[in-house]
Amino acid sequence: MPDERLFPATLMPNNDWWHVLWPDPQSVLRAVGMKPGMRVIDLCCGNGHFTRPMCELVSPGEAWALDLDQDLLGQARAACSEHPHFHAIHGDARELPARIDRPVDFVFIANTFHGVPDKAGLARAVHDVLEPGGLFAIINWYPYPREETTALGQPRGPDTELRMRPEDVRQVVEPAGFELKDIVEVGPYHYGTVFRKSR
């Protein structure tokens, strides 16, 4: 039975087609501005598809992964077990400031923001854990009709009506104390909006 606390349409996808869309996750992380030595958070990390490449990229920096789903978080923890500066947190992304004990440089969230019930509240929570000038990268599906976003011959991703334009994301996030830094292409159907915390 699904956990009612989970955001809608954000269940972890099947690994086969996930790898088709994201064959080189570290290139996505680099594209949105993640660099070695940073302290970073993989928010709503799922099974760790981005988390392990994140740990490898930022080393010797620190990496945190947070997810509500204990089983998926366990997979991310196992994937990052060899990284000494990795921390797994079981919890709700909206409670982030209570779960992180020091400011970070970068918060990353992929394919989940569209389903967050309180997007403005989440943006404020991210703002509260970032260093001044820190970055918040949101990976989203472009608002194409779902039947057009296919992988391995089948439609993939959230329902069409849940998808957000970059401008929609900007209107939600900037009032929380951010400014849009960049919009980058990060896949056949995805874009990344990169926000900087106002100094």
Shape: globular
Distance between the amino and carboxyl termini: 44 Å
Mean pLDDT: 92
> Using only CA atoms, what is the Rg?
15 Å
How would the blueprint of this fold be written?
Layout: H1 15-21, H2 25-31, E1 40-43, H3 51-58, E2 63-67, H4 70-79, E3 86-90, H5 96-99, E4 104-110, H6 119-129, E5 130-141, E6 150-151, E7 154-155, H7 166-173, E8 178-185, E9 190-197
Please summarize what this structure is.
The chain has 199 residues and is α/β, with parallel strands linked by helices. Helices cover 28% and strands 27% of the residues.
Please explain how this structure is put together.
Helix content is 28%, strand content 27%. It contains 7 helices and 9 strands, in the order ααβαβαβαβαβββαββ. The strands form 2 sheets. The protein has a 7-stranded mixed beta sheet with strand order 3-2-1-4-5-9-8, sandwiched between helices. It has a two-stranded antiparallel ribbon with strand order 6-7. The N and C termini lie far apart (44 Å).
